[in-house]
Structures are given as structure tokens and as C-alpha cells.
Amino acid sequence: MTNELNTKKLTGIIDKDEQTRRNSPTAIIELGGKQHIVSNGAKVVVNRLKNEEGETITAKDMLGGADIQLKVVSHMLGKKINGLKFKSKVRYTRHYGHRQQLTTLEVLAGTAPKVAEAKISEPKTEKVAKKPAAKKVAAKK
């Protein structure tokens, strides 16, 4: 399963049936300073969390305030990024690489996110008293 996740897009929602995900209720949660759109049964890849595999995490839905239960499926490394520093004529070359640490989460099916209804309120209008018009002073001759 890890190889399947590595070959797909490493950030965002990973779901085999895209149509099912679009029709199911969704929620927006915040993890690690980033917002993610999740739905029941979907798997989400986020930056590494300190929780161990098999642990359950609770996150708040930013739309409706419902509690969303997430299960830590696995920890993995992201795609390798190679970098190069080079300065001409001085024989300076530096190679470096980076692999982001990632965590795969699964939204548990038992938690159905609720979408809050938007409350529309009338805009407040304040009455402002008009200032009296300034008196014109006649020029003296």
C-alpha cells in the first residue's frame, strides 16, 4: 500500500473513487498550520505528525465545528528533491538532497461532518448627524 501512495500525488486527498468523494459530505480541518479538505473514508497525506501508527486524532471542522476522527495509517518519506549550488570559475559545487517526512491519515467512517448553514444578517446602518453648513463671510472692501 505504501508503494501505491508513493506513486500517487503525495499531498492532498488520495481516494480511489473520485466521484464518491465529491458526493460525500466534506469538512475542512487544520493540521500543522495547513488546511485540508476531507471526507468520510478518505486518506490524507500531511506533514509528519508526532503521533504513532494506529493512534486516533481528533480535529475540529472549520465549517461546522464537528469533531473529525482521524487514524494514523503510516509514516513515510516524500519524493527526493535534489539541489545544486554552483559558482563558475572557482571550482565550487555543492549537491544536496531533501525528502519531506509525511504522515498518512484516514478519516474514520463513523464521524459524519456537518456543514453549518450560513447565517445572513442585515447590515447595520448608523445614522450620522449632518453638520450645519458653514456661514459664508462677505469680503470687506
Topology, please?
Blueprint: H1 2-7, E1 12-14, H2 18-23, E2 26-31, E3 34-39, E4 43-47, E5 56-60, E6 67-87, E7 92-107
Antiparallel strand pairs: 1-4, 2-3, 4-7, 5-6, 6-7
Tell me the radius of gyration.
Answer: 27 Å
Q: Biggest sheet: strands, sense, closure?
A: 5 strands, antiparallel
User: What distance separates the N and C termini?
Assistant: 97 Å
Number of DSSP helical runs: 2
Low-confidence residue ranges: none
Structure description:
This protein has 141 residues and is mostly beta strands. Helix content is 9%, strand content 44%. It has one domain. The strands form 2 sheets. The protein has a 5-stranded antiparallel beta sheet with strand order 1-4-7-6-5. Strands 2-3 form a two-stranded antiparallel sheet. It has 2 helices and 7 strands.
Concise structural overview:
This protein has 141 residues and is mainly β.
Which characteristics define this entry?
141 residues; mainly beta; five-stranded antiparallel β-sheet
